[in-house]
Amino acid sequence: MQLTRISPFAEGGLAELTMVALPSGQQALLRKLHASKVFHIREHLNFRRGLKIRAALTPNEYMIGSLGWGYDFLCPYEVIEYMQAENLKVVFNSRSHLLAQNRERVLKACAMGLAHVHRSGFMHLDVKPENFLCQFKGVPKVKLTDFDLAREADDCGPRAQMGTPAYMAPEQFHRKVSCKASDVFAFCMMAYQLFTNKMPFTGSTLKSTLKRQASEHVEAPAPIESNPTMPKNWNEVIVRGLAKRPENRIPDMEALLDMLN
Q: Is the distance from CB of 242 to CB of 192 less than 8 angstroms?
């Protein structure tokens, strides 16, 4: 694929992003593994797996799609859709009135993207506000991204790298295993946060918070206790989605959407 480099765009711990133009003139992002990570086998394989999974999931209106991938010598890269947007964490922290007005629509779009992942036979495994891009121009548009930890649905572990601790499910802490219901737990952590402006298992320290989150004996207060005006169907979904044992939890994001419809 012939690309015209425009400018550096961003840099993360695993990859660097560059704004590029396609032969059609369309803007896109070139996302390339850091050269320093090429011989870090686990990170290299995660990156390559993620770009293949993104490609397999493309196209879908609720995710940042793949426009192609390959290798530059030993360095894997992908070309992905560019969306002029902020991630949901930035939008939430800004106390945006647009988010407050469109909270249910935004969360439903997040759920649609994850349901596509589950329907296609994969798990995302890093569900958090930073991995959803939000655009508020007319009807809000939300797209899921970052598939570096994604796995096939039957690849449940155990493994060391599972996700972002603040959104991980108890089985990921204790048994180092994951399932589609682990994505459900993370999504409901995020939904709880958006409806109540706080996390469900807050302790006096980060360590105590994670301990409460990981414990099968500590249940979260129903979000409707903090936000009595929130819709009852969302309250029910979040309560069931935060069940500590995966067998008691909503099994996947398709089932979660069915509960909302």
A: yes
Q: What is the total count of domains within the chain?
A: 2
DSSP lists the bridge partners of residue 27 as: 21
pTM over 0.70: yes
Residue 231's CATH number:
1.10.510.10
Kindly report, residue by residue over 207-255, the tens digit of the pLDDT: 999 999 999 999 999 999 999 999 999 999 999 999 999 999 999 999 9
**Beta partners for 155?**
none
Question: Does one domain contain both 168 and 235?
Answer: yes
Structural domain for 74, as ranges:
4-81
